[in-house]
Design brief:
The complex is a heterodimer of chains A (420) and B (379). Chain A has one domain. Chain A is 21% helix and 18% strand. Chain A is built from 9 helices and 10 strands. In chain A, strands 5, 6, 7, 8, 9 and 10 form a 6-stranded antiparallel sheet that branches. In chain A, strands 2-3-1-4 form a 4-stranded antiparallel sheet, covered by helices on one side. In chain A, a hairpin with a 5-residue loop joins strand 8 and strand 9 (357-367). The radius of gyration of chain A is 21 Å and the shape is globular. By secondary structure, chain B is an alpha+beta fold. Chain B has 2 domains: 22-131, Cupredoxins -  blue copper proteins (Immunoglobulin-like), CATH 2.60.40; 135-378, M75 peptidase, HXXE motif (A middle domain of Talin 1), CATH 1.20.1420.20. Helices cover 51% and strands 16% of the residues of chain B. Chain B has 12 helices and 10 strands. Chain B has helices at 8-20, 134-166, 170-186, 188-193, 198-201, 217-227, 232-251, 259-277, 289-314, 316-334, 353-370, 373-378; strands spanning 23-25, 36-41, 46-48, 52-54, 56-64, 70-75, 81-88, 93-100, 103-109, 118-125. In chain B, strands 1-8-5-2-3 form a 5-stranded mixed sheet, with no helix packed on it. A 5-stranded mixed sheet of chain B has the order 4-10-9-6-7, with no helix packed on it. In chain B, helix 9 runs antiparallel to helix 10. The longest helix of chain B has 33 residues, at 134-166. The radius of gyration of chain B is 23 Å and the shape is globular. Classes of the chains: A alpha+beta (420), B alpha+beta (379).
């Protein structure tokens, strides 16, 4: 829900680069190219704009995991798991099995021996509902929660940045929708592809891990491709106008990717993910006058321009906004320059027992250090006028390891294969 | 009980009935020649005219020269019944025909219609014999015995339950209810393979078809726990339950059991737990779900233990996993009873949501590898 537009950047240069990148991306996919980004974060074929080729495959291997700086897809299935096995070797084997399945599914293939044609007496390896569907830009991104480090003698490997999130003003967290030893974020342009991925990983995980909670998201609320139209959240406002783009090497390096200087070594090239289930009081919001809605956000509803400005991407003049306007409080200038890469989705889980839409924002944000990213910004949002219309009901934090480098590598190899 | 779903056992039974073996009684003329086997049964002997015959249509011509009523069976090596003839009185003759595939069989006479009978090995020749692993035949035979024992033990327990109902003794009936179901729950896939019995004895209110009369255990469960009264209808239904279960007891031996149906039956028992017991739907009035839960797991474990020697050869990792997950689930279940030798489990309405999830997680952890057992014995 944060908005950190910090300067006017006419949709000129970056957009051109973006489109150029798209051409490269398609070429790379056609040629079977796999390397998405170099170690320094120079993105190449991850810059395909949304809608360019929504059926294509996103390379699974790379210095960073896909699903962070790569273009944001339309749909989400996010799952948090708890570990049930005490056997480290068994858990590591599951991570390897997951990696192999993820490698296949992101390329648009079925898991294992497929969904049919095997032994008639045994259930097929793959559940089958994604047969015939395109890869749909499926990305699968794994993260390790703080509680994982209480297991398998990992305590001394827990990153300092993987803090226990403090209680924030207004939090009403449901523990059944919070936390988790690990998570998998599945994003795709086809919801069936995303759900298929989580379902098959959960199946492979039975006996080793259990699903703690999961969330479906149906509409992206932020993009990493600024040349595409800025998405709107369920409150009807454009969100993430100045989000960190997949092409912004410098800002990715500064705000998203963990650097070797940050430590620990196993997180080098990784990131930290904050997931927050933010319920919106949709009905009361809808009864709020347009003026108040715009005052609360600090932008106009139609164009998305900051208060007093004409265009969405005009540089906001924060002092023109109400002191408790959302954009003002979330802006990097109000947070010692901090910014985060947002990748959230709208959700609607039907209606609640009172007939109200059970809806809101499933907020996902990636950052190099949570303490300087989400924690700082969220604390500053304590007086946010928007708080009257939202409530944080779920929360989780994960250390997202670097990417899988090649066919022999696996999720979590840097954490589990070398001892500190 | 599961709402109308074609179980593997049922499916195989249907196929077998169509293609493999058709047993029927013929009173008409006999064909004679090498397709007729004469069986002469006495009180101590079971003499047969030939030990080998060509596969295909055969006729068993039985003469009871003994003093006791007898019965004659043709059995597969795993004791599954190919065909049978009961109630053959002293001095009478009967004929049975069957369509028999190439392979080994037993002809069994049971003077007095009890015991294991007097056995003769026979062979149907010609064509290609289906290769059988004698260890798997043994496993199936042992499981068949187990299924029969469960039925045999269920009847007296259900009779005690029915008696309490007929006596109008609400408390005694409530007490006898859950124990009466254990044998059935342990062998449910076999019991359900007789498609007509399950809907009579184990159907729940939500499983009723339009116009179907509600009978059986759960109808009585509702009367005892929800309505809290026993009327004439309930007393009649208690008698009907015994009749239907006696039918089951008689037919258990004819169930088509194979190594794969045993393995898949074990998995189906866990499915039963996952869809009916963990949710508290099965015993929604009595909340005795954990008794059924335990019985389902015991039945699954029985199949698994019998198949384990073969499964271990083909997939040692799977066996290690299954041993571990069976143990984990049993340990978890034991937390819900004070005495591990009793079936006195905590009432399921007292099991909190978070604890139900733990049970559900443990069931999933076991059922997923269990679904691979059939492949490990079919290799």
């Amino acid at each position: 829900m944060t908005d950190d537009t910090q300067e006017t950047t006419a949709p000129s240069r970056r957009a051109l680069i973006g489109w150029g990148g798209a051409g490269l991306a398609l070429g790379a996919v056609a040629a079977g190219g796999t390397v998405a980004m170099t170690r320094t974060g120079e993105s190449t074929d991850d810059a395909a704009p949304a809608g360019a080729e929504t059926g294509a495959a996103v390379p699974f291997h790379g210095a960073h995991q896909a699903g962070i700086a790569t273009p944001v897809q339309d749909r989400l299935h996010f799952a948090a798991f708890d570990v049930t096995t005490d056997d480290r070797a068994e858990f590591v084997q599951m991570l390897k099995d997951w990696t192999e399945a993820a490698r296949r599914m992101t390329a648009g293939h079925a898991v294992g021996e497929g969904a049919y044609g095997g032994l008639a007496e045994a259930p097929p390896d793959d559940t089958g509902e994604a047969l015939g569907l395109k890869p749909s830009r499926l990305t699968l991104t794994i993260g390790f929660g703080p509680s994982l480090f209480d297991r398998f003698d990992l305590a001394d490997r827990r990153p300092k940045a993987l803090v226990d999130l403090p209680q924030f003003a207004g939090d009403n967290l449901d523990k059944n929708r919070s936390g988790g030893d690990l998570c998998v974020q599945a994003c795709a342009d086809d919801p069936q592809v995303a759900v298929h991925a989580i379902r098959n990983l959960a199946r492979i995980g039975f006996g080793k891990v259990v699903i703690r909670w999961s969330q479906l998201g149906f509409g992206k609320t932020s993009s990493t491709t600024p040349d595409a139209q800025t998405p709107r959240n369920l409150m009807g406002f454009k969100d993430g106008t100045r989000n960190i783009a997949g092409t912004e090497t410098d800002r990715l390096k500064k705000f998203v990717w963990v650097d070797s200087a940050d430590g620990p070594e196993w997180m080098n090239g990784g990131s930290y993910l904050v997931a927050r289930r933010i319920r919106m009081h949709i009905e009361t919001w809808d009864r709020t006058s347009l003026q108040e809605q715009e005052d609360i956000f600090g932008r106009d509803k139609g164009e998305g321009a900051p208060v007093g400005k004409a265009k969405e991407r005009d540089k906001p003049f924060l002092k023109a906004m109400m002191p408790d306007a959302h954009v003002r409080l979330a802006h990097p200038d109000s947070n010692h320059g901090s910014t985060i890469l947002r990748r959230g989705y709208s959700f609607t889980d039907g209606t609640d027992g009172l007939g109200r839409l059970e809806a809101g924002l499933f907020f996902l944000a990636y950052q190099r250090d949570v303490r300087e990213g989400f924690v700082r910004i969220q604390r500053n949002l304590a007086t946010d006028a928007l708080n009257e219309y939202i409530q944080h009901v779920g929360s989780a934090l994960f250390a997202v390891p670097p990417g899988v480098r090649g066919a022999d590598d696996w999720w979590g190899s840097t954490l589990f294969s070398k001892e500190a | 009980m599961r709402a109308a779903r074609l179980s593997v056992v049922t499916a195989t039974a249907a196929v077998a009935a169509l293609t493999a073996v058709t047993g029927c009684t013929e009173k008409g003329s006999s064909e004679g020649g090498d397709r007729v086997i004469n069986v002469t049964a006495t009180d101590s002997k079971c003499e047969i005219s030939k030990k080998e015959f060509p596969a295909g249509h055969v006729e068993i011509a039985i003469e009871n020269k003994g003093s006791k009523v007898t019965e004659v069976y043709v059995l597969f090596p795993d004791d599954r019944i190919v065909t049978e003839r009961e109630n053959i009185g002293p001095g009478t003759k009967q004929k049975v025909t069957a369509e028999v595939k190439t392979g080994d069989y037993r002809i069994v006479c049971k003077p007095g219609m009890r015991g294991k009978g007097i056995r003769q090995a026979v062979k149907a020749t010609g064509g290609k014999a289906v290769k059988r692993d004698p260890r798997l035949d043994k496993a199936v035979a042992a499981y068949r015995t187990y299924a029969q024992e469960q039925a045999d033990e269920t009847l007296p327990k259900t009779e005690a339950f029915a008696k309490a109902v007929k006596d109008g003794d609400l408390e005694a009936a409530k007490k006898a209810y859950a124990p009466s179901r254990i044998g059935w729950e342990r062998t449910e896939p076999v019991a359900e393979s007789f498609g007509d019995i399950d809907p009579k004895v184990d159907v729940r209110a939500d499983g009723l078809e339009d116009g179907q009369k509600w009978t059986g255990w759960h109808r009585l469960e509702k009367a005892l726990w929800q309505d809290k009264k026993i009327g004439g209808t309930e007393k009649t239904l208690a008698g009907q339950l015994i009749t239907d279960l006696t039918d089951w007891q008689k037919r258990v031996g004819t169930a088509d059991i194979t190594p794969t149906s045993m393995a898949n039956g074990a998995k189906e028992l866990l499915d039963e737990v996952a869809t009916g017991k963990v949710t508290g739907e099965e015993e929604r009035y009595s909340h005795t779900d954990l008794v059924d839960f335990k019985a389902n797991v015991e039945g699954a474990e029985k199949s698994y233990e019998l198949l384990k020697p073969v499964a271990k050869e083909n997939d040692a990792t799977l066996v290690t996993q299954l041993d571990k997950q069976f143990a984990a689930l049993n340990t978890l279940l034991d937390k819900y009873r004070a005495d591990p030798s009793s079936y006195d489990f905590v009432s399921y309405d007292k099991v909190a949501e978070a604890d139900r999830k733990k049970l559900s997680d443990a069931v999933n952890a076991l059922a997923e590898p269990l679904s691979k057992l059939a492949a490990a014995v079919a290799k």
